[in-house]
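In this section we walk through a basic example: taking a raw amino acid sequence and producing a predicted 3D structure, encoded as discrete structure tokens. The instruction is simple. Fold the sequence below.
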Amino acid sequence: MCQMNVVLEQDGSLEKIMENVTHLAVTGEGVLVSTLFEEPKLVKSAWVKNIDFLNGTVTLDNKALDHD
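The resulting token sequence is shown next.
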């Protein structure tokens, strides 16, 4: 089983949101992450910025995307 760590990038630093994440869903409100034994956590207004499969990390960002 491959479990991921989810971090939120803010102002150049990374904040750990949840470890051993087993499920991630992008919703209209943000990104919902959950593990086997913890309550799901919603990261409001977030989007998936990067997934590093080698290191098992999903990086989220909640800054607005620039659409040129």
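Looking at the output, two observations stand out. DSSP finds no helices and seven strands in the chain. Strands lie at 4-10, 13-21, 23-26, 30-34, 41-44, 47-52, 57-61. In the next section we compare this with other chains.
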